[in-house]
Amino acid sequence: MKRLLAALAMITTTAAAQAEEVTTFTLDNGMEVVVIEDHRAPVVVHMVWYKIGSADEPVGASGVAHFFEHLMFKQTDILESGEFSATVAANGGSDNAFTSYDYTAYFQRIAADRLDLMMQMESNRMTNLAITADNIATERNVVLEERNQRTENNPGALAREQFNAAQYQNHRYGVPVIGWKHEMEQLNIDDALAFYDLYYSPNNAVLVVAGDVQPDDVRALAETYYGVIPSEPDLPERIRSQEPPQRAERRITYTDPRVSQPYLIRSYLAPERDPGAQEEAAALVYLAELLGGSPFTSDLGIALQFDTQTALYTGASYNGNSLDTATFSVSVAPATGVKLSEAEAAMDQVIADFIANDIDPARMESIRTQLRASEIYALDDTQGLAQRYGAALSQSLTVADVQAWPDILQSVTEEDIKAVAAKVFNRDQAVTGWVVATQEDAR
C-alpha cells in the first residue's frame, strides 16, 4: 500500500502539471472555447456543446432536443444529407452526438491535421442547416423507433420513466430525454426551426478541442469559422422551474410480465455539483461507494448478499454532474424466496446502521486511494477529458471547478459523509419503486 501511495503521489505531480495545459478564451460573439493539450499522439477531439437539453424544452414539445440532434446530420447549404459523417469517416475519423437533460453535444475524433475541416463543417451546420418537411417526417419516425427499442421494449426503462416522473414534481428532469411518445408524434417543422434558430447559436455553445494542438492555432481556427457567426440577441436566460418542498414519500409498483427478476429502487433528491460548492457532492461519491459499491466491501453488499443472503444484487449510485438537483439511489434485487417487503426492510436497516455507526477509517482510505487513481487514469483519456470539461461548462461549473474536483474528493471526511447522509436520507423527498412481473410478486 505504501508503495502504491508513493507511486500515486509521483503521478499526481505529473497530473497536476497536465491539468494546467488547459487554455480558455471567449470569442467576441460569446462562444466559450476550451483547449486541452495532449501531444502524445497526432489526434484531436473536436466537440461543440450547446447549453440546451431536454430539461430546457418548451412544455408540450418533449423530445425536441434529442430530435434535433438527429436533424443536425441532414443537409446544409453546402453538405448533402449524411455527407458530414461520410466526410469524417473518409478522413479516418469517427463522429457522433448525444443529448442529455442539460446539454446537446456533437463530436469528432480525427487526425490533428484535419481539425480545420471539422471546424469548417461543424460551424456550417451551426447556422446553415436546411431542414425540410421530409427530414422532419423521416427523423421523427427514426426517433419513435428508437424509443420503441430502448424504452417501450424494456420494462426497466419504462419503470425508470415512472420513477423519475414521480421524483420530480415540478422540474423537467421528470420528463424523459427522448420525450413522451404522444408528444414526440406531434413534433413538426415549426418546433424544430424555432428550437434551432434560438438555441443553436455561438453565445449558447462551448467549443472543446483536446489533443495534439496548440492554443494559438485553435484560436485562429475558431475565430475563422465560429467567430464570424453572429450571436443570438434574444437568447433567454436559462431559468428552469424548480422543485417545491417535497412533503410526502411516493411509492410505485410497476408491473410488467417481461420482468424476469423483481427488484426495488429508492431514489432521494440530492445536491448537485455547484460552482465553488462541490463539497457535498464529493461526500455523496463516498457515500455511494460505502453503501453500495463493491458487493465485497460495501455495507449493503456485505449485509445482504453475504451475511444474510437476502439479496442477489445490491447497489447505490450518485451522479452530481447536473445543472439542478440530482438524485441518490439505492437498489436491491432479493434472493429467491425473499419478499420485496423483506428486502426493503433489510435495506432500511443497513441505512439506519450506517447512520448510527462510525465509518471504518480503513475503508475511507481505500476509497480515497481508488478515487485518486481514477482521477489520474482519467488523464489518459483525451476524449473523456473533453467530455468532462464540456459537460461541466454546460452545467454552470467552471474550468477551475473541474480542476479543483480531485482535491475536493481527497479532502472528504467521515463527518462530511455523515452530514450529507442525514440530509439526503429524507423519506419525504424519496420515491420507492418495486418492479415486478405480477401483483403476486409485490409482497
TrEMBL record:
Gene Ontology MF term list: metal ion binding; metallopeptidase activity
Alphabetized InterPro entries for the sequence: Metalloenz_LuxS/M16, Pept_M16_N, Peptidase_M16, Peptidase_M16_C
Residue ranges constituting the Peptidase M16 N-terminal domain according to the UniProt record: 33-178
Keyword rRNA processing annotated: no
GO aspect biological process, one term: proteolysis
Presence of the UniProt keyword Zinc in the record: yes
Alphabetic keyword roster: Hydrolase, Metalloprotease, Protease, Signal, Zinc
Domain of life where this protein originates: Bacteria
Domain Peptidase M16 C-terminal span(s) in chain numbering: 187-371
Endpoints of the signal sequence: 1-19
Similarity comment: Belongs to the peptidase M16 family.
Record protein name field: Zinc protease
Organism of this sequence: Yoonia maritima
